[in-house]
Backbone:
């Protein structure tokens, strides 16, 4: 018999598969900007996975880590964008 | 598991979130250039993650009503804070990436109109003129 | 006077965040009260107030640089909360639109210029974020001096300023200007 926790784990698995699909974009992306977009998407998906796993395991700590991860990944994205702006023109 | 209405609500929210996150990932591969990819990546995954937080809030409120343990209220509030952090940071990151891509010189594919490129060219021309004028003025001084 | 206002607003913001993060995390003094497991204990309140005071004393000139304290007015925060409802409705529309375009692949993109005519940094930031979250539009660049924005539009249409930003600008003007 399934219950809600099983569904949460299933959703987390689907998010993990999405993350793997995004990694292909990081490998394929023709320009550096495409790779950064893939990276940004992965960050959002990781936050979603952490929140859903925290609910499934009844651990509030995971959600705290998700908040910090969201803010730190935002700062990382800003720095990558800043680097690309001053980077090499084609 | 009996399907009472809170459980059905939680399952519907969860299905919406999973569908939109997967659509965002598909869009990342289906669209032709950086800007359209950012459309798919930002909007769909942000929306999906908002629904993940709604799912978790509904789930923890239901658990609080069932068990009356205070840690589920704590979980709901923390999930709400994660939602606010995502809403504030995600579009800003997308904006920074789009701006960086444009400054790098990535051109929008299949574009029918590009006002920013025209504006940049206009700016560059005026800067060049000013530089030339400056050089002339310095030459006259020398 | 300005320093005092900055100090008080930083202190209140830090205390609010602390209280929000530690709600329902401890036991209150009055064990028999019905909400005793939700509200904060006495020790927690003392620690929260002292930490917020230290943060406000050390970092108010970094965290609160504004010249203009109109956002201390609670009515503006209330309007900002109400603004999330039309924003959410627009987001739902946006996502079905983008989902449709992901599935069918029909796009006609371009970068257009709009002139929202907002003055404050907060208003421009919120407008840029709202535009990014709503149908087929993505902020690419903001011209600070002339308050012009360059928007990547997935399906270019007529009259960009009114079609993209009109409905948000009317809302944002109520609380951010």
Residues:
């Amino acid at each position: 018999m399934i219950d809600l926790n099983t569904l949460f784990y299933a959703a987390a698995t689907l998010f993990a598969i999405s993350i793997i699909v995004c990694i292909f974009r990081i490998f394929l992306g023709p320009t550096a900007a495409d790779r950064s977009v893939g990276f940004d998407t992965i960050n959002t998906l990781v936050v979603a996975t952490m929140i859903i796993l925290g609910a499934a395991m009844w651990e509030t700590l995971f959600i705290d880590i998700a908040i910090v991860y969201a803010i730190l990944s935002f700062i990382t994205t800003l720095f990558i964008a800043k680097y690309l702006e001053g980077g090499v023109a084609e | 598991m009996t399907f009472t209405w809170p459980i059905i609500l939680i399952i519907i929210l969860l299905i919406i979130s999973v569908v939109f996150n997967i659509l965002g990932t598909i869009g990342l591969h289906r669209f032709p250039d950086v800007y359209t990819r950012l459309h798919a990546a930002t909007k769909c995954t942000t929306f999906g993650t908002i629904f993940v937080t709604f799912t978790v809030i509904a789930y923890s409120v239901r658990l609080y009503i069932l068990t009356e343990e205070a840690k589920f209220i704590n979980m709901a509030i923390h999930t709400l804070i994660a939602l606010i952090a995502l809403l504030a940071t995600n579009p800003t990151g997308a904006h920074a990436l789009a701006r960086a891509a444009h400054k790098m010189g990535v051109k929008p594919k299949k574009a029918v109109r590009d006002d920013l490129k025209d504006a940049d060219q206009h700016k560059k021309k005026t800067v060049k003129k000013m530089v030339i004028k400056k050089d002339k003025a310095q030459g006259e001084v020398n | 006077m300005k320093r005092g206002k900055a100090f008080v607003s930083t202190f209140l913001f830090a205390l609010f965040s602390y209280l929000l993060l530690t709600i329902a995390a401890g036991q209150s003094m009055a064990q028999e009260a019905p909400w005793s497991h939700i509200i904060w204990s006495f020790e927690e309140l003392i620690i929260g107030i002292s930490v917020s005071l230290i943060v406000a004393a050390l970092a108010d000139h970094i965290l609160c640089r504004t010249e203009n304290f109109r956002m201390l007015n609670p009515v503006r925060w209330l309007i900002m909360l109400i603004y999330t409802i039309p924003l959410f409705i627009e987001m739902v529309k946006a996502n079905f639109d983008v989902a449709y375009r992901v599935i069918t692949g029909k796009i006609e993109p371009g970068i257009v210029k709009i002139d929202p005519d907002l003055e404050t940094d907060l208003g421009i930031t919120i407008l840029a974020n709202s535009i990014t979250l709503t149908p087929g539009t993505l902020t690419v660049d903001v011209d600070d001096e002339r308050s012009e924005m360059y928007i990547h539009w997935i399906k270019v249409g007529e009259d960009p300023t009114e079609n993209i930003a009109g409905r948000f600008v009317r809302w944002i003007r109520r609380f951010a200007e």
Residues 51 and 63 of chain A are 5 Å apart (CA to CA). Residues 4-85 of chain A form one domain. Chain A has one domain: 4-85.
